[in-house]
């Protein structure tokens, strides 16, 4: 019988980004405390996160880059030349204890999730999914690319058909670049169009891979205001495209919560029930995979969405209402709404959002038609 595990630790609370950074909020530590407050996790279901070994980090990253991250964190400074060479020390990728210690924990947890999968179990690493980091350069709040490390770990184990699916609102430019020229890894990403959103330079439909990797990269850039029906339409159609050309031995699914309406770093309008439906659609097509977190900058929205994922994985019924302990936990977070004129009090009452559906616009349909034609 498959065991279901959540990989995490309250220690993440010690390794925060600096104040005024979008990732200063509690995320994994909040999820663990929220699940406990709602009586939705047992101690036996939790695996404590471990740091990645240096050998694991070097499966993808360069040694000089990893050494620089370690040195910058140790001295809490920017080593000479590192800002320009490695893109660390600015607002986007600041010096903090998240840059190596926190990132190493997230990456070790992704390896742990893969190890559980290889044992025949199911695991969710909410700290994972840091998909922007490059081999020797920080990018988009990400220092260590745990999906890329995880994929290389699987390749080292002999896997030759690995699927990576990314549902984050932002394109997975670091993962795409890492595997753009191989036919052993298929990368599928549904995201905000780079015409208006980060990373701006990558994530276009025309990027389909090169060399042996041509045809093994599929980007689905989507418009502002994306509703639930549009997102699920795009996901189902893109999975059909993948299925026609690629039969994975294993897949990794990135579950960033920033496509949700409440998240202020995206322009999508999704509900968490559509987010959960998307999770289940992938599982219906490909079976169980390795599940990672990702972006997510509204702590209430993040905790509620990942709780739905956890309830689904662990076979629990989703409670209709938050109990008082969970409400007080969310209220205690040092977080201010980006737009204080919008009433988000419903997030303190229920776990599930109302469906945020609508018409599937022509531009969404056209994007999927073009994607199919280019596959």
UniProtKB/TrEMBL annotation:
Pfam families: Hist_deacetyl (PF00850)
Keyword Zinc: yes
Chain residues that bind Zn(2+): 168, 170, 258
InterPro entries according to UniProt: AcuC (IPR003085), HDACs (IPR000286), His_deacetylse_dom (IPR023801), His_deacetylse_dom_sf (IPR037138), Ureohydrolase_dom_sf (IPR023696)
Pathway linked to the protein: Ketone degradation; acetoin degradation
Keyword Zinc: yes
Biological processes per GO annotation: acetoin catabolic process; epigenetic regulation of gene expression
Record domain Histone deacetylase: where: 21-312
Alphabetized GO MF terms: histone deacetylase activity; metal ion binding
Keywords noted in UniProt: Acetoin catabolism, Metal-binding, Zinc
Family: Belongs to the histone deacetylase family.
Annotated protein name in UniProt: Acetoin utilization protein AcuC
Encoding gene per record: acuC1
